[in-house]
Amino acid sequence: MNINELFETIQDEIGIDGLNGEFLLDGKKIIWSYKISEDGDDLDEMYDDDEMFSFGSTSTEELLLDAYQDDLDKLQEFLDDIGETDNWKIGDNEIRGSRIKFIIS
After folding, report:
1. What does the pLDDT look like over 13-30, one tens digit per residue?
2. What angle do CA 35, 37, 40 make, to 5 degrees?
3. Phi, psi (5° rounding) for residue 94?
């Protein structure tokens, strides 16, 4: 499977429903990225009321890493299901401000 086929398969099978971030095809790589919105809607989606009113505050980095780990788990399970786990390299995450990303190549 080439990168274009993988991207199309991810879009068809995983889609955008249930994902925190989005996948974009960029040449010979796929970039997953997620950005925390400035209006705070992301907080409502990611945490229920019990977690929102806990004593500890959640940093932007923690929110980004939670979204990353959730989508990474879904991607890894999907790649395993289609037998493509060993054919692709998933890069480390990179955080800049309120955005996190990783690259599949």
Report:
1. 887 677 899 999 999 999
2. 135
3. -135, 125
What residue numbers bound the domain in which 85 lies?
A: 3-104
When divided into structural domains, the chain yields a total of 1
26-55 confidence digits (pLDDT tens):
999 999 999 998 655 554 454 444 455 555
Is-contact 100 20, C-beta < 8 A? no
pTM: 0.79
Q: What does the DSSP assignment read for 41-63?
A: HHHHHHS-HHHHTSSSPPPHHHH
The angle subtended at Cα 89 by Cα 60 and Cα 98, nearest 5°, is 15
Asked whether 101 and 94 are in contact (CB, 8 A), the reply is: yes
